[in-house]
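Wed. Picked up where I left off yesterday with Type 1 glutamine amidotransferase-like domain-containing protein. The coffee machine is broken again, so keeping this brief.
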Amino acid sequence: MRLFLSSYRFGADPAPLLSLVGRPGRVGVIAAAADAWPRTARTSAVVSDVMPLTRLGFTPEEVDLRDYIGSDGRARSAALKERLEGFGMLWVRGGNTFVLRAQMARSGADRVIPELLLSDSLVYAGYSAGACVMTPTLRGLDSSDDPAEVVATCGMEPLWDGLGVVSFAIVPHHAPAELPGAEDAVPLEDAAAVRRTVNALRLAGIEYRTLTDDQAIVVNGDRTELV
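Structure written out below (tokens, as returned):
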């Protein structure tokens, strides 16, 4: 199993991701976390991820999970699995974690992606919401992401469990603790949201790891490290 879970895109250095992937090739870009956004904003979000991936030598193609939502769930999941098997890496961008989780459930991606990871068929690279959705719980993330967007966007109630691929929760966009005054550089609203998320996880006794926008968690087989 190979995972690259970051707070923001490649973190400080794309080298750990490239080392995990090997030679860059086709990458499936999943932007479901932005499905609640206006069309133009969502389109811009996809472009903003495609360009840096292209500069690193990847060939990005969007995989819109909405194309795999329908009444025949098994057939849709099979089609999604066939599509994802053609990529060496998945790139799952940030946005609303609850919307991303719901769209994964509706499309069957929450079953297909873990299966592909267990067989080491591809690398999963996700940042912010794309990282948080791989954890056991989304508890506390309602401090920054609105669960109410799920009903309006997906027509279902929000799910509070993640895919559970890693055993700990992730709190992205944390201020670098080693830099004096670093938290002051983070917008007050964002810093407060991070603190509320951390407090919720602590009160619930849930193991968690914080990430600054320069950091990422890399899982390669049985090895997990912070880079």
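Quick read: Residues 216 and 227 are 5 Å apart (CA to CA).
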